[in-house]
Write a structure and sequence with these properties.
Elements lengths: L3 H4 L7 E6 L4 H12 L4 E8 L7 E4 L2 E7 L9 E4 L2 H14 L3 E4 L15 H4 L9 E3 L3 H17 L1 E10 L6 H15 L2 H6 L2 H8 L22 H13 L5 E8 L6 E9 L5 H9 L4 E3 L11 H4 L5 E9 L2 E11 L3 H17 L13
Parallel strand pairs: 1-2, 1-5, 2-4, 5-6, 6-7, 8-9, 11-12
Antiparallel strand pairs: 3-4, 8-10, 10-13, 12-13
Helix pairs in contact: 2-12, 5-9
Bound molecules: NADP nicotinamide-adenine-dinucleotide phosphate (NAP).
């Protein structure tokens, strides 16, 4: 289905843009990134739940008042969804049916065959067939495919084994607050932490498995023992990159506020020198190679936080297999992992003439 809105010739006219989940960490980053990148916003509407209606969010030197999410958003030209599964399930296709474009950050539509799952540097071509709903991948998938694509092009990846060290902001604002609260509470009982006194740790943190001073899975267990997060990374990586790549993932939550880190092992179709891998990564848009161990330069979440590039380093051979490589990736899960990628998708659609104002400005 191609509507007039999505099919119209490229235009520089300003768009009617809506952000759902604007009071969350991803939605907030979206608003800032729209402004930073001078995205052609004519009118900006911000949505969240009734709890947040009336809040004021700064944008371009003024403020925009947050509204309760409802049918009204469906007449926007572009809706960036960062309001969770419920909002995306209810409204993403309604936006598309009304002739607009929905870019969705939730996991609701990512594996739907009608919906392209897009990281523009990796598979912008998938946008060509969009029907008005485009999905952003999970933040861990995002960092992973940015590092994999240049290596895959150079030496055909056969198998990927990944361990992730994910920040709490990947679970939203509440998880960031929980880490800070647990940290403060547990600092009151350092002896319980030192001795692994589970009873007192649980009492102080208010949970048996705090994320503060800990490393733990993000459970929603799947029948095979994977977590839901792990299952998402496997399926999404194969949808974006190549369904022939075998993917094995272990995701962990660590006491970091922003920035996901991945330790990646790659089995390749042929040997690839470390220098050639670094060169391919360095030439790839959106990747920054940070790989000078002797100068203490390596990717960390603190270095990635607040920045756009996906950092890749510690590129090493596998001493037992010339057709394998190891590397470390760090990325800001809120920017490239979510908000920036959504805005980049919109920029691509705009440049391709697949997104534009649906109505003359005077009628809006
Ligand atoms: N955090 C990440 O790194 C990341 C990365 C990729 C994708 N995502 C996805 O992005 C979405 C937002 O995540 P987040 O981390 O920003 O979460 P968050 O900080 O908890 O923010 C959630 C936002 O959604 C709003 N919201 C909640 N339920 C809603 C509903 N039924 N209708 C409309 N708005 C609703 C909240 O409004 P109130 O303030 O009124 O509660 C808030 O603005 C999720 O789908 C998440 O899976 C997140």
């Amino acid at each position: 289905m191609m509507t007039s809105g999505r099919g119209r010739a490229g235009t520089s006219a300003a768009l009617d843009v809506a952000v759902v989940g604007a009071t969350g960490v991803v939605g907030g980053a979206m608003v800032r990134i729209l402004e930073e990148r001078a995205f052609p916003v004519g009118r900006l509407r911000l949505y969240a739940t009734a709890r947040s209606a009336g809040k004021a969010v700064p944008f371009r030197g003024a403020t925009v008042t947050v509204e309760e999410t409802g049918e009204g958003l469906t007449d926007a030209d572009l809706v960036l969804f960062a309001g969770g599964d419920d909002a995306s399930r209810r409204f993403a296709w309604a936006v598309a049916e009304a002739g607009g474009v929905a870019v969705d950050n939730s996991s609701t539509w990512r594996m739907d065959p009608r919906v392209p799952l897009v990281v523009p540097e990796v598979n912008a071509g998938a946008l060509a067939g969009h029907r008005g709903v485009v999905a952003n991948p999970n933040c861990t998938t995002m960092a992973l495919v940015m590092a994999l694509k240049p290596i895959h092009d150079a030496a055909r990846i056969r198998r990927v084994v990944v361990a992730s060290y994910q920040s709490v902001s990947g679970g939203g604002l509440d998880n960031m607050r929980a880490l800070l609260d647990q940290t403060r509470a547990l600092l009151e009982v350092p002896d319980a932490l030192e001795r692994g006194d589970a009873e007192r740790v649980r009492a102080a943190a208010g949970t048996a498995h705090p994320v503060a001073f800990n490393v733990r899975p993000q459970w929603k267990w799947q029948p095979d023992g994977d977590t839901e997060e792990e299952a998402k990374v496997v399926a999404e990586t194969r949808k974006i990159m190549d369904a022939d790549i075998a993917v094995s993932v272990t995701t962990m939550r660590v006491p970091v506020l922003v920035g996901h880190t991945l330790a990646v092992h790659l089995d390749l179709g042929r040997p690839l020198e470390v220098a050639a891998a670094r060169a391919a990564l360095a030439a790839f848009p959106g990747v920054e190679v940070v790989d000078e161990p002797a100068a203490d330069r390596f990717p960390t979440p603190l270095q990635a936080a607040g920045r756009d590039p996906v950092l890749v380093g510690r590129v090493r051979p596998d001493p037992f297999d010339p057709s394998a490589l190891r590397l470390v990736v760090a990325s800001d899960n809120l920017r490239k992992g979510a908000a920036l990628n959504a805005v980049q998708i919109a920029e691509h659609l705009l440049a391709a003439g697949r997104l534009g104002p649906r109505r003359p400005a005077a009628r809006r």
